[in-house]
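User: Predict structure, ligand magnesium ion.
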Amino acid sequence: MTTGFFITGTDTGVGKTRVSCALLHAFAAEGKAVVGMKPVAAGCEHGKWRDVELLVAASNVVAAREQINPYALIPPLAPQIAAKLANIEIEIEVIQQAYARLKKTAEVVIVEGVGGFLVPFNHQHDGADLAKLLGLPVILVVGIRLGCLNHALLTARAIRTSGCPLIGWVANSIDPLMMAQKENIQLLAQRLDCQLLGILPFEKNSDIQLIAKLLDITKLGAA
Ligand SMILES: Nc1ncnc2c1ncn2[C@@H]1O[C@H](COP(=O)(O)OP(=O)(O)OP(=O)(O)O)[C@@H](O)[C@H]1O
Ligand SMILES: [Mg+2]
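Assistant: Predicted complex:
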């Protein structure tokens, strides 16, 4: 049976890709066939979408690009705005079909969300709808920086309101100068009411294999 996880974050740029790749490595190290998915990537550099490249490199299952990344948008903008500039509309059904096909190829599918949890995709659907329609439990990446308590608690509330189970969170230190990091993480551990999968230190050139070792995937009950 295939297990899927939806990786969301407290914001854009908080470490969703880093954590997604580390989870792919951690499950692969357990002998699982794993594949990453980025339903909507916005921001093309030199003909490539960074998140998609990193997820593909961290996967041990080879799959078609249109399944891994059904929507590749050129400008680094919010999905709905980037889609409008491209004269297209993001359709959740297209993503659902791509996920259904991808699911058949792997034992674990890690789906990286876009931006924060409630980012709009079209006039009707947002990131919460996507997680819900894919039927996935959610892992929240908290970028540990000033303001993260509010962002994390708001996001956790939005996840629970969506009806998706919030099964774990990762504390990712993205600001080396932030004071009282430990205290912030402790407070969140008390309040988020889900498994803390790991605490990732600030590390610019970190090896994803080493980061994977800092995540306890046994807490997800799928290893
Ligand atoms: N713990 C960390 N220490 C140092 N740099 C980090 C850490 N986590 C993430 N970064 C860096 O911060 C940047 C953003 O991380 P990442 O791409 O994983 O975020 P994201 O949430 O996936 O962003 P997006 O919303 O664009 O998908 C990257 O350059 C990444 O290498
Ligand atoms: Mg990313």
